[in-house]
Structures are given as structure tokens and as C-alpha cells.
Amino acid sequence: MPTSFRPYAPDQDLLLAPRLRDWLPEGHLAYFISDMVEELDLSAFYAPYEGDGRRKMSFEPRMLLKVLIYAYSSGVFTSRKIAKKLEEDVAFRLLGAGNFPKHRTICDFRKRHLKEFNTLFVQVVQIAREAGLVGLGTVAVDGTKVRANASKHKAMSYDRMCQEGQRLEQEIAELCAQASDADEEEDRRYGVGERSDELPEELQHRRSRLEKIREAKARLEQAQREADTARGRHPDDERRSPRGGRRFKRDFGVPADDEQSNFTDLESRIMKTEEGFQQCYNGQLAVDDEFQLIVGNGLTDNASDHGELIGLVEGIEQDLNAVPESVLADAGYRSESCLAELERRHIDGYVSLGREVKDSGKIDAQTYPATARMAAKLSSADDKARYAERKGLVEPVNGWIKNVLGFRQFSLRGLQAVRGEWDLICLGLNLRRLQSLMVRE
Fold it and tell me: Rounded to the nearest 10 degrees, how much is the dihedral formed by the CA atoms of 45, 287, 72, 304?
């Protein structure tokens, strides 16, 4: 008896129009994201399109938003790949509903609404709070380095800028002299006319590079002037500290020799990662302990987490009108002012002090009273175990972002732009987590 198979006729046309919803299983993430977006306040996304209706018809913002959020929640981040998915992937085609925007349209929409992504992130966290999926009993905080859309080889230190600038100025002067001699020689031999194109091209290349170096150098000096002013320095202080003590190592507004600037992404910084030193931004996360949802986020161009903890707590309070009962953070967030502020807000803080916690007697309790109290607190076995919970709460979320979704590098450039993209990845991950929690219930 011959073997029989199920019917297979790839060239057979369908008798009825296909229904894409029949091609995705029930409970698919695309359905959940579509339904959630329909419940959100999207007025800010429609505001730019308000007019008299005579302009060229634009793509529906809801459609673009659903496609973009689903892309980030499923590990597709570049606009070209998203546009390709709209042609090849059933879930993307379902959300696109017959629309096929070009990658430039998707990219422009993302850039246009970078600030609005944070409002959507907040709305989703508020919905989760109302659904009982955010308790704010304990919040764990951590930072993670995400690579910028720039190469570390395109960065230069302040000291190198000074040296390279002098070298280029000397070469430009020499080339100008050579160009002048060449012009005189051609005029003498052939009469007055145009000079050769080779030297002007070399001059243009060096002048362009010199201009970029001067601009980067000026940015570093301006940032240093602002930092010095914030410390109480004055341009005429002659390196003397207004508070006494040691003299300043550098003049007012002069950056450290190793201070760097990148020519591709001006606001990114060299940071230490698991893959060595890379051009990065520092993404901040605050994760609720009950269901591991992200309840607060932030992003900075500083490799250190110092000074970020209270900002995250204030963001949670502003968004949810409540503060966490307990906060867990590693030693990167410790400071006397931070610990004192947690006490003032009546938040039960567990902030590692690093090596100092091993010997609380080394801490000057009169100068650093909040730090001394934290050291005494973390000396007990129960409180050590309480702090140890941090690693199992927030680090898995970082692992999801980098290893499951594969988000290891920003697509956009500039601090404000990558902040919007960080909001988008946190929004996508929260929706993915919410879907699994609601299905489980």
C-alpha cells in the first residue's frame, strides 16, 4: 500500500481571502501588544498630524507604534530589519494590517516621538499597578552598560587633541606654503591659471579634521568650565581652592588629559564592560520584587552609578504616587547624602558599602553618620541576606534585555535619543512580562 500524506499544493490559490489572525496562535504577544496600545492615551502621537486634512496621507500612528513596540519586545531594533519583517513575518504583517512603511518612515517616527515613549512606559506601569502586579514592597536597582552607536576607535583624549591639533596646524602651514610655491611656478611657466587639485584636497582633509578636533576640544573645555563652576571655582582662582586645602591640579576649565570625546556620538563615553572598554551609555533599572516588572528607569553618560539612586526613587514616586518600602542597591550607588535621603524618606535601604562594611569601625560616624548606620545594619546576617536578594531581582532583567532580546547596542545617537530608545526597550520588555503574567493567571 503506498504511503499517504496530507494535501500539499503550494501553487493552489485560496478560495477565500486569508485571515491573518488564523495564522497566529491564540495568546500570541502581537495580540497582547495590539490590545494594550488600544488602551493607552496616544494623543501626543497624533498631535503632530493635526491640520486641515489637505496634506499627504500619513501612516496611522497606532499601527506604527504597535509595530515598533512589538519589534523591540521581540529583539528587532533597526528600522531596516523592522521594514523587512513587515514583508516576511506574519505577526508583523498582522500588526501592519496591509501597510508596508519604508525603513525611513519607521526611523523618522521613532525619532519624532522619543519623549513620548517615556509616557507610554509610565502608563503601562500604572496599569500594572492597578492590576495588582506592582507592589512596591521592595525595589532592586542596578545599572548596565549598553554600547553606543559609535566605535571607541573614533574617540580621542584631550591630551591627544592638543597634540594632534598642533601637528595638523603645522602640516596645514607647510601645505599652504607648498601650494603657494606651486602656484607661482605654474604662473611662471604657463601664465596665470588654476593650480593643481592635489594640494587643495590634502588641505581640505586636514582642515576638516582640525575643525572637528577643535569642536570636540571646545566641548570638553565647556563641560569642564561648568563642572568647575559647580564646585565653586572661579576663572581667576589661580588653582587655589575657595574652601582651602590642596591646590587644584589644573587651571579653571582645563579638562584632565585622559578626558575623551567621540567624533561619531559626541555624548557617549568610554566605559568598562564585560567585553573590555567600549563606547557606551549607562542604563538604569528599578525592578519591583513581586513580579520583576521595571517600575523606574533612567540613562546617563556617566560610567558611575553614583548619584542615580534618589533620582530613580523620585521617578517612581512621581509616576505611581508612592515610594518603595525597601530599596536594594550595590556599592556603586553609595554616598552619605544618598543614604541620608533614604532615611529622610523613611525608606528601608540596603545599600552595599563595599569593603568598608567589613570593618564598620573605620567609618567616621560623626562625619558620615548615615554611612555608619548602614554599615552597622549590614553587619547582621539577616540584613546581609536581605541585601543578597538584589542580585536575583534586577540582574535577570538585565539578562533578558541583553541575552534574550539581544539589545546590546543603541541604534540612535545622542543622550536624549538613546534615552528614548531605552524607554522603548523597557516598555517592550514590560509588555512581554505582563503578557506572560496575565496568561499565567
Answer: 100
Instruction: Please provide residue 290's backbone torsions phi and psi, each rounded to the nearest 5 degrees.
Output: -70, -45
Q: Which positions of the chain have pLDDT values less than 50?
A: 190, 194-198
Q: Helix or strand or coil: residue 63?
A: helix
The cell for 310 is: 534618589
180: number of CA atoms within 13 Å, CB side?
A: 6
CA–CA gap between residue 105 and residue 83 (Å, rounded): 9
The answer to whether residues 334 and 357 touch, using CB atoms and an 8 Å cutoff, is no
Q: What is the pLDDT of residues 272-310, one digit of tens each?
A: 888 888 899 999 999 999 999 999 999 999 889 988 999
Q: Where are the domains of the chain?
A: 20-112, 116-151+267-412, 154-262
Residue 190: all three cell numbers together? 604657463
Indicate if the alpha-carbon torsion angle 113, 132, 284, 337 is positive or negative: positive
Kindly report the CATH number that applies to the domain delimited by 116-151+267-412.
3.30.420
Q: Specify the length of the chain in residues.
A: 441
Q: Residues 384, 357: contact at Cβ < 8 Å?
A: no
Which backbone phi and psi does 271 adopt, to 5 degrees?
Answer: -135, 155
